[in-house]
Design goal:
alpha/beta, five-stranded antiparallel beta sheet, 24% helix
Length: 606
């Protein structure tokens, strides 16, 4: 530690030369062996309690004169994927503003990046240092998520979102060449008096430029003409459902089902072909509309009388040259899915899209229905209430009766199955689990007897054995939302307390970054679009490798609004941006994975 701190705050060159992994302390069961002045062997049998390496300097560090903090990482395992995250923290005067776009850096605590690596693979984690002197916005506006990089109080290397069992070899890594790189983009700073307005007429950040930014209306129409000539058909190995046409043929039932084949779980298409579900959530024309009435001065261009900043709709009207573009747009979306190697329309997508009958889909009945008894103010039902079962079944029955899309899905061969609820907060008392899952299953069987019950989308894999066992008893597939750089090491003994085993599906995952004008990269940040594409590939490869996995769905189709959706989330997580421009690095990676995923799953990734 002493060597690291000697030059801090005195001579910048000495800070650069003094960065050393040898100054970090091992945390919670991590074992570290020095292999040189700036190289260590890190062994992680646990992801608990920030297990990894931590540097907590006696005096805050000033990292404000570099663009990146970088470190090289090598996965020494020959059999397992590895994941690691790099965190830089600065104490603030208030609470952590977390996921939301903000310009008030005094309330922000940390930024991070991550990496997923196949066995034997090497890579580099690069963390953008979001300096307030470069990216900061005035207090009366919004801007990128920044921290006080001149007052860094903690640097960590760990596995964020712990969800694996503890075991030797969970992480076996070589870390080297921790370093500061590049010069801050000082010319990016916008003086406060020139900052507002900062949202342009297309919903983009007005004070930055990037390769795929829209500047004129004509570019939108040109995009459409160009893309239509370049879209590829679905991979040749797929059947009409996106299943493995050239793989084994099982019994055809006319509906999707789940089956274990040669030690691995699969979905099976209505025609009997093996199916691994790769999809995109929230695929619709309009996702979130920002209320412009709160700050009309933030926006360039004409301001609508109702204050609803529907940038996506306005951009698509210009792209298609008409207001009634929905049918044409959804036709384009389905062609994109084929071209991108995606065979499933994910949750919360437009009924107009799912009902076209051209692509398999999953669908939600409802989320936390208000007519069903609640467990206090918690995000869960009082499933022990004597009225719960009838109230839940009645609510599901009413929803099917009032929703034409649900009624069609109940008999539609393209419908994989149904969710009820999302990311519930389960109580510790296991007595609530059985009546909840049993009742939900009975409700699905009553209204859609041939469809899969896909559960309620757990928040991560950190659930009790009793909860897994109860869900397995009633769900056909258990869906989990998981944000990390790899899920390959999820325990295959997750159903150890269960009498039955059921397949798993990831309902949400994503990666994002700052390099296309957005204010927050999402729950799994990476350094740029190239790394975003590589991270997508590694995540899906990890899912393909795992015998319990039958699919993984990306959240979400479009970037969230620059100024955030209703709860403030403002993530750069889309396959397309606010101007409907696809991210080429990401969709090319998805196509490559989708074209070979069946052979990959059958033989194993590594």
């Amino acid at each position: 530690m002493k060597n690291f701190l000697m030059g801090v705050g005195i001579v910048w060159a000495s800070v650069v030369s003094a960065l050393s992994l040898g100054d970090f302390q091992a945390v919670h069961k991590a074992r570290v062996t020095a292999e040189g002045p700036n190289q260590v062997h890190l062994e992680l049998p646990s992801a608990e309690w920030d297990s990894g390496l931590r540097l907590k300097p006696e005096t805050p560090l000033d990292l404000s004169r570099a663009k990146w903090l970088a470190v090289d990482v090598e996965n020494l395992s020959s059999t397992r994927q590895a994941r690691l995250t790099l965190h830089v923290s600065a104490d603030g005067t208030g609470g952590d503003s977390g996921d939301h776009a903000t310009a008030i850096f005094k309330k922000n605590r940390s930024v991070n990046t991550g990496i997923g690596l196949n066995p034997g693979e090497k890579g580099t984690m690069k963390l953008l240092l979001t300096h307030p002197t470069v990216y900061g916005a005035p207090e009366n506006a919004r801007g990128p998520y920044v921290i006080d990089t001149a007052h860094v109080t903690l640097i960590e290397l760990k596995m964020q979102w712990p969800f694996e069992d503890e075991f030797e070899g969970l992480g076996d890594l070589r870390l080297s060449n921790l370093r500061l790189e590049g010069e801050p983009e000082k010319d990016r700073f916008v003086p406060p008096e020139k900052y507002v307005p900062f949202v342009d007429m297309y919903g983009q950040f007005a004070h930055a430029d990037w390769k795929f930014k829209i500047h004129e209306d004509k570019e939108l129409a040109e995009d459409l003409a160009r893309e239509r000539t370049r879209l590829k058909p679905a991979p040749e190995t797929w059947d009409r459902f996106g299943g493995w046409a050239k793989g084994p043929t099982l019994k055809a039932t006319g509906h999707f089902r789940a089956e274990k084949v040669d030690g691995k779980w699969w979905l099976v298409t209505p025609e009997g072909h093996l199916f691994f579900s790769t999809g995109i959530d929230v695929t619709r024309i309009m996702t979130d509309v920002t209320d412009g009435n709160r700050h009309p001065d933030w926006y360039q261009g004409e301001f609508p009388s109702d204050g609803k900043m529907a940038f996506t709709v306005w951009n698509l009207e210009k792209k298609f040259g008409k207001k009634d573009f929905a049918a044409d747009y959804y036709d384009l979306v389905l062609k994109r899915f084929d071209a991108w190697g995606m065979n499933t329309i994910g949750n919360w997508s437009a009924p107009e899209l799912t009902q076209m009958g051209r692509k398999p889909y999953v669908i939600t009945v409802f989320e936390l229905n208000r007519s069903v008894p609640r467990l206090g103010k918690e995000k869960f039902y009082d499933s022990l209430d004597t009225n719960f079962a009838e109230a839940m079944k009645s609510a599901v029955r009413d929803q099917f009766a009032s929703d034409a899309a649900l009624r069609k899905a109940a008999r539609d061969p393209m419908c994989i199955g149904f969710f009820i609820d999302n990311e519930l907060k389960f109580p510790k008392d296991a007595a609530y689990y059985e009546p909840y899952f049993r009742t939900c299953r009975e409700a699905i069987q009553e209204n859609a007897p041939n469809k899969l019950y896909l559960g309620c989308r757990f928040v991560g894999f950190r659930q009790s054995g009793v909860l897994w066992a109860t869900a397995a008893k009633y769900c056909d597939v258990i869906t989990v939302n998981s944000y990390g750089n790899s899920i390959a090491n999820i325990s295959e003994r997750i159903f150890a307390q269960s009498e039955v085993e059921k397949p798993l599906m990831v309902g949400e995952f994503h990666f994002g970054c700052y390099d296309r004008g957005m204010f927050k990269p999402g729950l799994a940040p990476v350094c740029d679009q190239t790394e975003r594409a590589r991270s997508f590939t590694r995540f899906v490869e990890g899912a393909l490798q795992h015998p319990l996995m039958v699919g993984c769905h990306w959240f979400q189709y479009r970037d969230q609004p620059l100024l955030g959706r209703g709860d403030g989330e403002a993530y750069q997580i889309g396959f397309v941006d606010v101007c409907d421009r696809p991210y080429p690095e990401l969709f090319r990676a998805a196509r490559k994975v989708g074209a070979t995923m069946y052979e990959t799953r059958a033989r194993g990734v590594w």
